[in-house]
Write a structure and sequence with these properties.
The structure holds two protein chains of two kinds. Chain A has one domain: Orthogonal Bundle (Helix Hairpins). Helices cover about 75% and strands about 0% of the residues of chain A. Chain A is mainly alpha-helical. Chain A contains three helices and no strands. By secondary structure, chain B is an all-alpha fold. Helix content of chain B is about 75%, strand content about 0%. Chain B contains six helices and no strands. The chains are: A mainly alpha, B mainly alpha. Chains A and B meet through helix 1, helix 2 and helix 3 of A and helix 1, helix 2, helix 3, helix 4 and helix 5 of B.
């Protein structure tokens, strides 16, 4: 095969996942937390597609498409929550959204 | 010659991908973060093309960089891009702990990958020319993975209904 093999894809995928996890841990704005979640899902997709090519099996790509659909659903619900919070004048700060704390 | 070209494209796309990912989590304005994520998704689509995942790359650009991010940008414009500066006031213990946790996650992933895949990633499968094309993806989706396909459509339907319910004004 020409170009990088699956191990390079796995390395890039793990770095990308770490970037997304850092975004979730560091940022306080729920919109940016959602964007970081997208980065993490895409890191998983990258590993899936790298393995699909490595094993010559289309199932990995099919699963990546399913992950994409789940990510779209997650964005719909997350953005719905953000809009609902904004309408109720709740500050958009995950540190101050502590109503559900047990 | 073609090999070198593929490597160059891969490295450029990989650095664009990581750089725009870091930009997403370091811009204080969510609008710029969303724009950086579009760049991230586009460079990922280039990486998908290099492993002959043409249909997934097209879906990535259409569904993600197109539809999902447009919705993101609309909501950010509606809510208003209030900044939370990520590193204001110097490093706090929270920032430090988050960075350490991120490093631990990375080390964890690398060790787990190294232990499970060492020496087993050498022989790569030969694939046909139409590997990853729409015809093959479609036939696999509708035969071997039909249940996953149906469940995905139900998940999308439930999410759409949930979005409408969350977004609708409650009658008082």
């Amino acid at each position: 095969m020409m170009g990088p093999d699956v191990s390079w894809y796995l390395i890039l995928s793990s770095f990308l996942f770490t970037v997304g996890a850092l975004g979730v841990l560091l940022r306080r704005n729920p919109l940016i937390v959602l964007l970081s979640l997208e980065i993490m899902l895409n890191a998983a997709n990258l590993a899936l597609i790298g393995f699909a090519r490595h094993l010559g099996d289309t199932a990995g790509q099919v699963f990546a498409l399913a992950v994409m659909a789940v990510a779209a659903s997650e964005v719909v619900v997350g953005l719905g929550l953000v809009v609902a919070l904004n309408r109720n004048r709740v500050p958009l700060d995950v540190d101050r959204l502590s109503t559900l704390r047990g | 010659m073609g090999d070198v070209l593929v490597w160059v494209i891969w490295i450029v796309a990989a650095f664009a991908c990581l750089g725009s990912g870091v930009a997403v989590i370091s811009f204080s304005n969510p609008f710029f973060s969303a724009l950086a994520l579009i760049g991230n998704l586009a460079s990922l689509a280039v990486l998908y093309l290099l492993v002959s995942a043409e249909f997934v790359a097209a879906a990535q650009v259409l569904v993600y960089a197109g539809a999902v991010m447009v919705m993101f940008l609309f909501v950010i414009a509606y809510v208003g891009g209030r900044a939370d500066a990520p590193f204001e006031g110097g490093p706090s213990w929270q920032t430090l702990a988050a960075v350490i946790a991120g490093g631990v996650i990375l080390v964890d992933i690398v060790i787990a990958l190294g232990l499970t895949t060492s020496g087993r990633l050498d022989d790569e499968a030969e694939v046909a020319v139409d590997f990853g094309g729409p015809a093959e993806i479609g036939s696999v989706f509708l035969t071997n993975h039909l249940l996953a396909f149906e469940i995905t459509s139900i998940v999308l339907l439930v999410a759409a209904v949930g979005g409408v319910i969350l977004g609708s004004e409650r009658r008082r």
